[in-house]
Amino acid sequence: VNDMGLMLRYLMLFPYCKLDDLVVLPDARARKVVVLAGVTANLLLLLPLGVLDACLGGAGFLKQLCAWMLVFYNLSVLFNLLPFLRFDGYMLLSIARGRPELKEEAFKELRLMLPRARRVRPRAAPANWPLLAYGLGYALVTAAAVGWALFRWVRWSVDTGLPWLAPAPLLLVLALSLKAGKARAAARPVPANP
């Protein structure tokens, strides 16, 4: 492991451990075991909290703190297993499907389904439905997460009496989209003149 830390994704902090060297393992089973080691370690860390919570009687600050930590830690483990977040669930699915760049391939397949791109797909190449389903799921989860975050931001800005802050994330998303569009246009090959 050459890098560990915390990252912010979907407005939540997640611990991470880069597994770039995973590809040097000889078979898919060994890679899956390494990926599942993180989930197993996270679940094992829940045991002391569960024991402490069970030993604490009645209600109190420590009991409530244990309960909150158990709930949020369980949620972070579950989020870790979702295949749309590029964490352990994503790694497991990409290893199982034999596709290290699963998200990119799924979005490429989705783009080929657009009416303009249908002319590009060779007639003999049928659509890859598992990749399409994954790409659509990824897009829906991301849209829902971004929509929820924008809704919470607008609600927070209005509730705190700062309604002028409400459009800030929308403007940021628009600026980032324009920048990404310009980068894609610049990277597009220029057709040769006949």
Tell me what the structure shows.
The chain is mainly alpha-helical and 194 residues long. Helix content is 62%, strand content 6%. It contains six helices and two strands. It has helices at 28-55, 61-81, 88-97, 102-112, 129-159, 168-187, and strands spanning 4-9, 12-17. A two-stranded antiparallel ribbon has the order 1-2. α1 runs antiparallel to α2 (61-81), α1 (28-55) runs antiparallel to α3 and α4 (102-112) packs across α5 (129-159). The protein starts with a strand and ends in a 7-residue tail after the last helix.
Task: Describe the SSE topology.
Layout lengths: L3 E6 L2 E6 L10 H28 L5 H21 L6 H10 L4 H11 L16 H31 L8 H20 L7
Antiparallel strand pairs: 1-2
Helix pairs in contact: 1-2, 1-3, 4-5
Count of DSSP strands: 2
Biggest β-sheet strands, sense, barrel: 2 strands, antiparallel
Kindly, what is the distance between the CA atoms of the first and last residues, rounded to a whole number of angstroms?
Answer: 51 Å
Rg, Cα atoms, Å: 22 Å
Strand ordering within the main sheet: 1-2
Shape designation: flat
Concise overview:
The protein has 194 residues and is mainly alpha-helical. It has helices at residues 28-55, 61-81, 88-97, 102-112, 129-159, 168-187, and strands at residues 4-9, 12-17.
